[in-house]
Amino acid sequence: MKYRALSNKERWIVYPLLVVIFIAVSFFDLPITQALYDPHDVSARILEFVGEQLFQFFAVLSSAILFRFRDKKCLWKNILFGVLSGILAIFFAGYAGGQFFSYAKDLGWGKLYWAFFLILVAYLFGAVAIVYTLPVKDEKEAVSYALSVVVLYALIWVVMTGLKTIWQRPRWRYLVTTEDPVGGFRSVWEPRPNWPFRSIYASFPSGHTMNAIASFVLVPFLLRRFDLKDSVWIRLIPYFIGLLVALSRIIVGAHFASDVTMGYLLGLALYDVTFTFLFPFLERVIPSKGEIVQNTAE
Questions:
Q1: Strand intervals (E) in 193-264
Q2: What are the respective helix, strand and coil percentages of the chain, to the nearest 5?
Q3: I want to staple 253 with a disulfide (CB 3.0 to 4.6 A). Which of 47, 173, 227, 278 is the partner?
């Protein structure tokens, strides 16, 4: 069973729908936010954190896959790829811990350094346990999948950061601290690049929503690991996660409706492109274990 991105039917339904929603809500961003904004909604704060963590964990898991199946026949490759994949795993796990640390601090829970290290260790040990205990039917496929996830992670960061820097749309939770929040509101159709870039002007697009919908990487993992038949119900999982995170980000005032809709669209499109084109390409060019052994012997 091969990993799949979106089906053609999904593409014809989801992409046009998201474009229509984006255009529609862009003219009602302010009233939507004013109706939903609640900075004291703890459940929304929890949702926006938890919703990102599935993709974050799969980034750690992918790093562990790359560590386990690195080329051990060549000493310098063994060391180099072992170090690089290890650094990636620690970075992704540490980022997850840092996210919780930041949220806890914002919620007034204090500086929970112990929680940061607990999450870091839990992600690392959890990923290693899964990678080294679950049987792998096709190592080449596993490595291709892992590389695709890491590349997807990087693509999301680059696209998100680039657009935030260009648009620099003020967040609503910042505007409400000013004398004239409504007057400071800026339409999504008004990008105003400025320097230096600050987080309070990082409303468009929603990176949290991009990461949440990128949890689509769960789908091929489940299908392959448990030999499940591809179904609408499995694919609804990441769609639902993305929707919950998008809603939570509006509630806490971090983004407007158009920001999360575009984040949803971009995250889904980047996943689709990565697993439609990059993954099969990697499967073709990455040598199997037998080919590695043969080339080394020659």
A1: none
A2: 75, 0, 25
A3: 173
Separation of alpha carbons 95 and 56, rounded Å: 8
d(C-alpha 55, C-alpha 74), whole Å: 32
Q: Are 49 and 103 in contact (CB under 8 A)?
A: yes
| Structural tokens at position 61 | 């898991």
User: What CA–CA distance (Å, rounded) separates 263 from 50?
Assistant: 17
- DSSP annotation of 140 reads H
pTM as predicted: 0.91
Among candidate residues 41, 59, 72, the one with its CA nearest the CA of residue 155: 59
CA 186, 189, 190, 193 torsion-angle sign? positive
Read off the pLDDT of residues 127-151 as tens digits, 9 standing for 90 and up: 999 999 988 888 888 999 999 999 9
The encoded tokens of residue 168 equal 């620099």
